[in-house]
Design brief:
The protein is α+β, with helices and mostly antiparallel strands. It has a single domain, classed as 3-Layer(aba) Sandwich (Aminopeptidase), CATH 3.40.630. Helices cover about 25% and strands about 30% of the residues. The chain is built from five helices and ten strands; from the N terminus they run E-E-E-E-H-H-E-E-E-H-E-H-E-E-H. The strands form two sheets. The protein has an eight-stranded mixed β-sheet with strand order 3-4-5-6-7-8-10-9, sandwiched between helices. Strands 1-2 form a two-stranded antiparallel sheet. The chain starts with a strand and ends in a 19-residue tail after the last helix. About 25% of the residues are buried.
Length: about 230
Amino acid sequence: MKYNEFGQPLGDELVNFCEGKLPIVKLIKGEEVTVEKLGMKHFEDLYEVYGPASSPDNLTYVPLNQFNNINEFSAFFKRLIASSDPYHLAIVDNSTNKAIGQFSLMRIDRKNRVVEMGWVVYSSLLKKSKKATEAQYLVMKYVFEELQYRRYEWKCDSLNAPSKKAAERLGFTFEGTFRQAVVYKNRNRDTDWYSILDKEWPSKKIKFEKWLNDNNFDQDGKQKVSLTDID
């Protein structure tokens, strides 16, 4: 550890450190899904995720309610497309070319090379699926290898058990709870913070690729070894 002339400890010096780039995604293609910049071509598919055909509990922990009017959804959807932060992405099933969910890169901190995965809204076709894991892997790889960010965050309502479980399964480290951090839908939210650092990515990438390998799944598509148990 280095110390200054006053005997105070200092953080490690970052040689040639510079500001990060903004995300610019056309498409990131995987074996089962493709991650694309959100666009109007995804409108009808994602109305099924946000609209009356969806399950209302999909949006319990998102700061909006189910849409029952397609015109209202259209106005909302156009705002998502136009937004640069959050930077919204569609998850497209390669076998059907249908958008089956979305998420975003948000709180984009170029100065410190930090970004958060958020606004995760999955259809029933994505939940607890290999496709969902691959989509998360593709964006994680983009953040660390293309944008070369230093820190990748995941935050969620401390009562959102599925989101907390997903963060832990995907390899994020729990850092603590920010109490009374947010008010949404006229209720309190304590926010749990998770992160992955750039120096942790190489080992986590190996785990993802072992888990996603076809050899890890039987003929019915059931995993043989869980992601958390992969060596």
